[in-house]
Structure formats: structure tokens, C-alpha cells
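Thread: "does anyone have the structure for this chain?"

Original post by V.I.:
We have the sequence but no experimental structure in hand. Need at least a predicted one for the grant figures.
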Amino acid sequence: MEIPNYGLYGEKGGHFFPEYIHIESLRARGVQHGWKFKPHRHHNLYQFFLILNGGGTCQIEGKMRNLGERQLLVVAPLVIHGFKLLPNTEGWVLTIPDLYLQKLFQHEPNALDHLTRDIHFQCATGKTSMAFGDIFDAITKEHQRNHALSRLALKGYITLLMAKILSEQPTIDANLNAQPSRKQRLLTSFKELIGEHFKKRFSVSDYASLLGITPTHLTRICKSILGISASKIIDERTILETQRLLIYTSMTITAISYELGFSDPAHFSKYFHKKTRQNPTQFRKEFAKNRP
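Reply from O.Q.:
Generated one for you, C-alpha cells below.
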């Protein structure tokens, strides 16, 4: 059986721009879906669940767990998960694109690596639970305000939340300064090279050559760490830049295609549609209509 790969749950193929977060109450999400969420996964999204009251059960990679009050759960990209919550369970679910966190943790890559591990714990005290609740509440209110400085404020709150989550993990302090593996260093270098050369439409072979490894080895590294191919990572960077230019500039589709190294605007539009299920014009209109 194929495991659904969603943006937000139940919104397969839906739009989720890589620089925006989403937060809502568990009550709102639970009522919408009858408090049941079938096993699914998110290709490029982290989700952070805080349960204040109520609970239920969750299935993580096929294994059942109990959920209770004052618990926090982190679900990393590609992790298969499902829930059956008790009616009227209170709390939040915060969804953050992996690119957002990669940028946030660019100087602390080992800390980000810990978020991909199995994080599920009960707050040691009511005071700790309240502190987490205050941060989630602040993120919710700032997300709803959507004023000129909201993105800056949200970045601060999310940084605080990540630090608090990591500080609750007893083994993290000893490991934050550990040296990354050779595979991790190569992956980091690969992403840096993409940032420098993606407008030149380099292939996997081009990047592998710059790294001094074979294309097969590069793809193997990407799949072992991130679960996706090297070409997928290249495409994601091109799509991200396309979305930025469509949203934040008035450049024509033709101008954007040339800016990103495409020689044929028609081919560029087909490429964008294949990756996002929308053509560039549709994306621009839809985002303008539903802009956060």
C-alpha cells in the first residue's frame, strides 16, 4: 500500500511555500478529521506536537505509542506517522519546512541533526509544560497577526522553541560538538555548491565532479541521509528560487526562466508544472490570493 505524502494532512499535492510555517490547535485539526489521522508522511516538513490535555495513541513507523498530557513529539520529514486522539484533546501542531530550519540552524548543523531523531517526551514538571505552551501560544498569536515584523518575531520564537526542545534531551549537550561524518560533510558541501551554481543548471554529474566523487555515490549519500535523490535536492532549490521570484518580484515568466538558466520559457513552465502541479502563472495568482 502506498503511504500518502502530504503537505498538510489530507491536502495531497497542496501548496506549502518553503519559507512559511503553519500552526493550529489540535482541536481544530482533530474536529476536521474526526480525531483520526491515517498513516502518512511529509516529504520536506517537520511537525511539532504539544499535548496539554487529553491524549490518545500514535503510530510511528509501524510502532504504537501512547500519548498523554504534557507530552511533546517531533516528527521529522519522511517519518510515517498516524494518530488517534481522544476527542477534545488540547494542544498544538506546528509545521515547519525543512529549508526553514536548515537556514535557522546553518551555524549549528549538529543541533538540527538531533531533530531528525526520535524525540518524544513528557515534560518533567508543570512549569516546563507551561513554558512550552507559552511559546506555542506566542507563535500562534504572531502567526495570526501577520504584520510587518511577524517573520522576524516568529524566527525568534521558533529559535527559542528549538533550543528548549533540544535542552530537554539529556544526551544532546555531549554530542553537539561532535564532528560530522564524511557523508554529512559531503552533503553540506553539495548544498553549498547548489547555492552557488543552481542558476547554471548543473547536473548531478557536474556537482559530483566538483566534490570529487561519482554521481552514484552522491545520490547514495543524499538518499541515506535525507531519503531523496541528489537530483531532487537540485530541483527543490530551483523551485524555491522560482517561487521567490514569482512572489516577491514582478518579473515576467520569460524573464524568470532566463534568470534561472533555462533557454526555453515553454520548457521552464513545463518543468515547474511537473514539480508543483501548477504553472507559474497559476502559482503567482494563487499565492497572491491566499498570501499568509
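V.I.: this helps a lot. Strands lie at 22-25, 36-40, 45-53, 56-60, 63-67, 71-75, 81-85, 90-97, 119-122.
O.Q.: and The chain is about 50% helix and 15% strand.
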